[in-house]
Amino acid sequence: MVIGMDTAGAAVRPVISLSPNWNPIFPGESVTLTCNVAPTAQGILEYSWYRDGHWIPGDQQRLVIESAAHTDSGNYQCQAGPNERSDPVRLDVFYDLLILQAPPDVHEGDSLSLRCHSRTGYRTMTPVFYKDNEIIESPVS
Fold it and tell me: Is a pLDDT exceeding 70 seen at residue 84?
């Protein structure tokens, strides 16, 4: 009995990664979504992409969003050949002057980096991070 492992011929569920690995992003910024499949799925050349459950143009392993707009916000999934669709990965495009960015996929036990990201031309001083409305006192950069 094999538990949690893919065997030859079994369906392989892809996983989407983002580069750069931040969410949300500002309008005009670029992001690349990659549909990663297990080594057992080698040779698959046909990829499909979906946003909020609807097919979108793109048939390569990578989906490049060159200059993001608010309409690019949504839950993205990919499919490699006849295999299952990936779990959704959220991408948001915000018009704010300052956004708190985090990796789109974090699990318990992972280390976590957060980024205080400002729009081009918006001057920021030393950032202050809060958790549950309390200032995080430890040194941050």
Answer: yes
Cβ–Cβ under 8 Å, residues 12 and 38: yes
- Count the Cβ atoms, other than its own, within 10 Å of residue 12: 19
Residue 65 and residue 33 in contact, taking contact as beta carbons nearer than 8 Å: yes
Q: What is the distance between the alpha carbons of residues 5 and 69, in angstroms, rounded to a whole number?
A: 38
Dihedral through CA 20, CA 25, CA 27, CA 29, nearest 10?
-10
CA distances from 17 to 37, 76, 108, 112, 136 (A): 11, 10, 18, 16, 29
Q: Report yes or no: 124 and 111 within 8 Å, Cβ to Cβ.
A: no
Range 75-93 average pLDDT:
94
pLDDT in tens, 1-49: 444 444 455 567 899 999 999 999 999 999 999 999 887 666 657 899 9
CA–CA gap between residue 47 and residue 76 (Å, rounded): 13
How far apart are alpha carbons 124 and 119 in whole angstroms? 10
What's the order of all strands across the beta sheet hosting 31-36?
A: 15-19, 31-36, 62-65
